[in-house]
């Protein structure tokens, strides 16, 4: 049987993609577009547009980087390399104490660990303590498709960030899952207004009058 080359390529792509897959389906997360193509290459963008649940190790294995890939500007392990420039219309504002409901879509499970953290994208550093950590037992195929609700439908509480996340693009809430040597990341762009310098501390809460 002779298959057209393009069909063969497609078939092998589909087969090699079928390992483990997942993403945050809600709230809205970063997706790749022209700004990402400019620093990561159009080949990478097309790869994730074809399957947005794929992962950097597969991208590398399949030769998904072209001459426009700039490792200084495109970090494949921070929001998969997806750039803020494509996502400036999706920024949400959270104040300290906001509960953010998160829904995760796992297409193919693989046992691993996961965490959710606020990341300062300018230095790729986790801010403060992780908001959630699953040290192991995350996305266990033995429980699939009925993964524990705590792993796929949960909420995190946004802390006070002291003015760090005022600028859009600076901070994301990043979901990170590592299973079977595969890395998954989804990023929610958000801002938090700076603390009000004129806010009067609630004196009554600390002293009482007799
Ligand atoms: C991922 O791709 C699917 C299918 O094209 C689409 O319905 C979904 O909205 C995308 N999700 C994200 C988070 O990009
Ligand atoms: C999640 O855990 C991995 C592995 O321990 C760690 O490298 C990473 O910094 C954590 N990521 C976030 C966003 O918390």
UniProtKB/TrEMBL annotation:
Q: Which UniProt keywords apply?
A: Copper, Signal
Q: Which residues form the signal peptide?
A: 1-20
Q: Which cofactor names does the annotation list?
A: Cu(2+)
Q: Origin, by domain of life? A: Eukaryota
Which InterPro entries does the UniProt record give?
A: Starch-active_LPMO
Work out whether the entry's keyword set contains Signal: yes
- What PANTHER family does the record point to? BINDING PROTEIN, PUTATIVE (AFU_ORTHOLOGUE AFUA_1G14430)-RELATED, CHITIN-BINDING TYPE-4 DOMAIN-CONTAINING PROTEIN-RELATED
Q: Report what the protein is called.
A: Chitin-binding type-4 domain-containing protein
Species assigned in the record: Helicocarpus griseus UAMH5409
Q: From which lineage does this chain's organism come?
A: Eukaryota, Fungi, Dikarya, Ascomycota, Pezizomycotina
